[in-house]
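Note to self: the last two entries modelled the partners one at a time, which told us nothing about the interface. This time every component goes in together.
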Amino acid sequence: MNRLADEFLVKTAPNPDLWLSSVDALMLDLVKDQEQSKNTISSLAHEAAAYHLQLGGHRIRARLALAACASLGVNETNAIALAAAVELLHNASLVHDDLQDEDLIRRGSKAVWAQFGSNVAICTGDLMLSAAYAAIAQTQCYALIPELLKQMHAKVSYAIKGQCSDLLLDSKTLNLKTYEDIAFSKSGALLSLPIELALIAGGKKEWITQARQAADDFAVAYQIYDDIEDFEKDSSGDCIHHANILLVLQSDPSGMNSYQAALDLGLLKLEQATNACNHLPMNSGYLLAELAQKLSHQLKATTPISSDIARQ
Amino acid sequence: MNRLADEFLVKTAPNPDLWLSSVDALMLDLVKDQEQSKNTISSLAHEAAAYHLQLGGHRIRARLALAACASLGVNETNAIALAAAVELLHNASLVHDDLQDEDLIRRGSKAVWAQFGSNVAICTGDLMLSAAYAAIAQTQCYALIPELLKQMHAKVSYAIKGQCSDLLLDSKTLNLKTYEDIAFSKSGALLSLPIELALIAGGKKEWITQARQAADDFAVAYQIYDDIEDFEKDSSGDCIHHANILLVLQSDPSGMNSYQAALDLGLLKLEQATNACNHLPMNSGYLLAELAQKLSHQLKATTPISSDIARQ
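The predicted structure of the combined assembly is written out below.
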């Protein structure tokens, strides 16, 4: 397809954010108790899943899928199904992560495990993970479904690897390579998946590696931003298992300023992510490029941490 | 199809147990860490999933799927994929159930949570649940995949409802109707699914309700058998949340012998299950009918518990 056709398609693409309410409706429908009339028992897991989804959130992964689908000419029904699938996967992981990390608060309210108990939280995450795959049944591209399923499982498997590594981390021996590998798997996997599924549905799967590159770089930069913001908490000793980039870079023997090094690395990653996004076909990575731009500003606006403080 | 053709097909069907080793190989492949070469971090969840699968088990659900597929003329590739899907779902539920119930031993070895820790067990169950859906990507019946996915999610959702109810049960107010509803959802759902998926793949989905009826009745009978065997443990007070049928029937004001009543109910359910199986098309329920027959003998061979003891 030539450049002109590309631009025509992009300009006439619908505003994908208009589809977001349909994504939310589909997600809620997929975690509903379908056996209510036939069975006397009640299910707290179904209630907890609806509770969690209704806490809101930015729906970044759903929006990445919708934006890429709209750019690639994937139709509304398919776009909504793919967006619901990735957003359900992400939220399933949040429900289980909060339990594992003992994080009490999610989106300003009690996390599922804190509100409903640990056992219900396990069931709730399971329900949402299963619902994510059921969302794929709503797509109309039958011949592509096997590929969509395989890609989803590959990313879930990779994200689980990241979560496990993060939970079992020995922060004393952590180096930059492992730090990046954890960010790739724990965050990059489910940030890349929305664009990857859209590329498969749009018949452009040869670009998957490029999408993954963009999401991986973005994920590392996001983790760096998060670490700079959380530095005080992470270095206080309350959070011994957490690997903060400033603590990782402190172990560098060159004695460089770890805040400046982290900032430079984050900005470099975002530049790389933006480049990779801009090379994706039919502008399908435009939303991730926008998010990278925004994160770049946020990174630059962080309060510098002096070497002395970072070395405490 | 006339009766003769039915019998011809059944007699020439392959021995489905010969496919079991391929099911095991597929399951192990689907929980393998595919990112090993690209990523320095290791994943205990993948190791734990292989550990759990290699503990063995009867593979009842895989065998039910294989038997039904062979009877219905579903080809080997599809049969193996469907069998792996249901067996992975069942094993995912075991990994999470053992953690929730704090059961230390599974198949004579340490349960995953006892061997690898609670957090890894959560990740392991998630990995296996995701792998179950990835197994569906191995089928060759593309147009039927949406229906297979929907049916899987419906049963996972129902099984989760059963697990939640069981965990949160108030055994004091439990009646026979709720007891049966929990058995339907907690056990019946994943016993019915193998035959249901085979019926969908074999183009006979109009028989799904019949398959469900058979599996539900079998599930209640199995639960009754289990309860009679476990009566001493369940009534000792160590297990206050467990709803044993003998304790449920004790609350019946007629003062009948609860062991005899449980036995009669179990045998009736097995008779109903066998009848329902025998009406399934192309003898696709033959293995469940055989299991019902076997369970009937086991039930009759249980040691009677006198009313006095059951009323302690």
